[in-house]
């Protein structure tokens, strides 16, 4: 039995506003003011939690959104810009085929060119592209029970057995941790499982405990082998 990835959680200055932005980009259904529910096989929700903490660097994860044609790619970009996104220069250069944007709170995401073979079988959210080592890719494969679908040149990727986006780690060089993660996983214990037992299993796989002070009542905050934070929710709090 393994953890369930129930949500990708964003810290936000304006959670309802950021939820509205991503609902407009993705076409997902609201499940309350600050949670979005997928309409496809993505398998996890988006949650937006209030936080006044400033951004201290790029997020660990960003979305890679797929396109079916150059026109479709441009439509996605135009829709995002109209909702409040902006273009972002991350050193991609003029020859890059993907278009890099930031949402209204600076969270990076890419709109990928059509005919990208790595994401060919994926839906609109093709990948959660992450900064991380091969060891962390292996950790998350064991933590979630998702098989590796890429393991080459220190780069790894996993994908749920039911489909949905790939989760990727780009390998070295890794960015230094510069503060608390503003985008992170929310996990739930396996069905019928116990939070404490699941935390112990994750620690045995290589996670570490993180002390972030008050404000996460009932949640256990851990870090993966690269030091990136995630939360284990109480049983029944998914």
UniProtKB/TrEMBL annotation:
Source taxon at top rank: Bacteria
Domain VOC: residue ranges: 4-114, 121-235
InterPro entries found in the cross-reference section: Glyas_Bleomycin-R_OHBP_Dase, Glyoxalase_6, VOC_core
Gene3D superfamilies registered for this protein in UniProt: 2,3-Dihydroxybiphenyl 1,2-Dioxygenase, domain 1
Protein name, per record: VOC domain-containing protein
Organism: Actinoplanes nipponensis
């Amino acid at each position: 039995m393994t953890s369930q990835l129930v949500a990708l959680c964003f810290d936000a200055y304006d959670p309802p506003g950021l939820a509205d932005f991503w609902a407009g980009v993705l076409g997902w259904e609201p499940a309350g003011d600050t949670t979005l529910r997928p309409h496809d096989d993505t398998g996890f929700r988006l949650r937006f939690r209030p936080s006044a903490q400033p951004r201290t660097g790029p997020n660990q994860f960003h979305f890679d959104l797929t396109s079916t044609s150059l026109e479709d790619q441009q439509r996605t970009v135009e829709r995002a810009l109209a909702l409040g996104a902006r273009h972002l220069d991350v050193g991609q250069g003029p020859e890059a085929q993907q278009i890099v944007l930031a949402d209204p709170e600076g969270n990076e995401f890419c709109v990928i060119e059509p005919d990208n073979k790595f994401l060919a079988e994926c839906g609109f959210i093709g990948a959660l592209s992450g900064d991380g080592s091969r060891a962390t890719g292996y950790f998350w494969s064991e933590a979630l029970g998702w098989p590796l679908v890429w393991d080459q040149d220190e780069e790894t990727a996993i994908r749920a057995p039911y489909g949905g986006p790939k989760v990727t780690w780009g390998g070295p060089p890794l960015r230094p941790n510069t503060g608390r993660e503003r985008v992170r996983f929310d996990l739930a214990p396996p069905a019928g499982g116990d939070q404490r037992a699941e935390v112990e299993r994750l620690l045995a796989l290589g996670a570490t405990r993180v002390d972030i002070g008050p404000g996460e009542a009932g949640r256990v905050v851990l870090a993966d082998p690269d030091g990136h934070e995630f939360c284990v929710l109480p049983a029944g709090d998914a």
